[in-house]
Amino acid sequence: MTLVPLRRPGARPASATRAFLPTTREEMRARGWDELDVLIVTGDAYVDHPAFGPVLIARFLEGRGYRVGVIAQPNWQTPEDVSRMGRPRLFVGVSAGNLDSMLNKLTAQKKVRSADQYSPGGRTNCRPNRASIVYSNLCRQAFPGLPIVLGGIEASLRRIAHYDYWSDSVRRSILLDSKADLLVFGMGERAAWEIAKRLDAGEPLKGLWDIRGTAHVKNRPEEWQPLLADASRFITDRKLLPLPAYDDVLADRRKFADMSRLFQLETNPHNGRPMLQRHGDQAVFFNSPALPLAEADMDGLYDLPFVRAPHPSYGAERIPAFETVKHSIVTMRGCFGGCTFCSITEHEGRVIQSRSADSVLREVRQLSRMEGFSGTITDVGGPTANMYKMHCKDEKIERACRRLSCVHPGVCENLVTDHEPLIDLLRRVREQKGIKKTFIASGVRYDLAERSPEFIRELAAHHTGGQLSVAPEHNSPEVLKRMKKPGIQSYERFATAFCKASDELGREQYLVPYFITGHPGSTMKDTIELAQYLKRNGMRPRQVQDFIPTPMAVATTMYHTGFDPLTMEPVPVARELRDKRRMKALILWWDEAQWPLAREALIDAGRRDLIGLKPSCLIPPEHAGRSAGRFGGGRPASRTGNRERSRDRR
Ligand code: SF4
């Protein structure tokens, strides 16, 4: 099935509002529509840009000829708001938005965030907690009997029984709480289109139960028991995998870890089996993941007529997430890294799906004509900056592969790590009329980059605005093993090469290394050693990410169960918020505001030897007076050499 869009006949609407998908009856009428085919309800503001997932699906369906409307951030106290455009003919698609609604609202310390990046003006409280569930129930009230299709990252990552950090509980599949008819997981274009087509053809909902990339509930035991009874035959035939039941994973952490491992092994769309998980008398059935998009399909998506702006109804209010992406270009989706704290591989898939260079250049030209564009592209990338067009050397091998990462514990010998297509693309982007600067802000995968000195040179010469973000995350081999990240030596080799290239170009540039504290496997001892490493190397991180156990990540299973689900080895876990705060304070060793907490941590860990004024100490003693100045403030102890300077994040 190709996804290349069919353009709807007729010219693009002229007025500012008519260029957007309708959000009101009046906007429907302006298009000459008396009814919608599909309604998309989203927890984010309506920004007509491909970086906003629910809008991407809406535009995609529009491109297939369906009449699609968008209701963004509806009033969830009454069903009236979601029904303001009437009952759609085929189905309503519901998404919490680009982020899990709980992650969007709360920090790792479980405090309410000061801003919502996906809401007008960054305002908070524009969406409910667990928005997928609330919106689905709202739509059920508004449109009795209408198929409700749940999608987006919140639904995708909560589709099986999962640990919810914010309530510190194991929750059942979100399908059961939302009472939606179907759940689309992963990237939803293929599934959404097939649902629309088959409903349009008059198929009953049950007929749609075989669509890849979807899940549904089997309500009665007689619907699922025969499948389980035959499970051994199915397993032999690679047809069905029964996951440990919800009641079992709720009661037994080892079973939860088993569920997580079994689930992870089925994420390759080419060999991932359908799965079934019992929840009491009900069961949730998961079809195999959707197949990845081909290059022409990716191009088709980005050729859709996005306005690349927030809906005019927001007036002058800015939407922070849009401000970040409005002058950036996505070149690919997917990630084969498989870092355990991240769910991109689970959501976007591990097969890299890239756009053609021509498609990217078309978007660059479109961008260059945009009002307010100054000539700077803020990012050319995707989940990772430098996986563009990388692939397994052999399709047959890729189809059979059951590894969770192509780059851990080392770069697979079958992985084609050629950076030439990316280098060539970046050169062509730079040559486009009206483009003055092209930056790379997506994270660079340094274990891949170090294989291409030419890419590092290009990066240093053209794509770094003085600072380059990289994410070594930690320096401990044991912690990095739990994270499935390369060893710190790989980062050091990359840093050396990048600084050398910057030196040769006469450019003073800085690496901005990111670190995570409180990741499962990371003890206070590891954190102290990381702080010592940072100080030794003149690195002063400004931001440290406190590990957040997000639904479905492998590291979340470690956090909840205390086991690495991939090996079933016990893993130490920092669960107390106070310990997490102390770990963060240690990594920010140079920041005076953190010293009281860091002192407490060092004293409790029996490391008073690291409190003092000697160069080997991490922080000064209390009441150290002016002599403490060299630990904090603006200047590092030493700035000899570009390598050190380039690793300092001031
Ligand atoms: S064989 Fe190697 S490169 Fe190919 S998909 Fe598997 S891990 Fe990735």
In short:
The chain is built from 26 helices and 26 strands. With 650 residues, it is of the alpha/beta class. The chain has 2 domains: 17-286, 3-Layer(aba) Sandwich (Rossmann fold); 464-650, Transcription Regulator spoIIAA (2-Layer Sandwich).
How would you characterize the overall build of this protein?
There is one protein chain. With 650 residues, this protein is of the alpha/beta class. The chain folds into two domains: 17-286, Rossmann fold (3-Layer(aba) Sandwich), CATH 3.40.50; 464-650, Transcription Regulator spoIIAA (2-Layer Sandwich), CATH 3.30.750. It is built from 26 helices and 26 strands. The strands form nine sheets. It has a nine-stranded mixed sheet, sandwiched between helices. A three-stranded parallel sheet has the order 22-23-24. Helix 22 links the parallel strand 23 (510-517) and strand 24 (544-546). Helix 19 crosses helix 21, helix 22 (524-536) packs parallel to helix 24 and helix 24 (577-587) packs across helix 25. The longest helix has 18 residues, at 488-505. It is globular, with a radius of gyration of 25 Å. Mean pLDDT is 90; it is low at 4-14 and 633-650. Iron/sulfur cluster is lined by residues 336, 392, 397-398, 401, 403, 406, 412, 414-415.
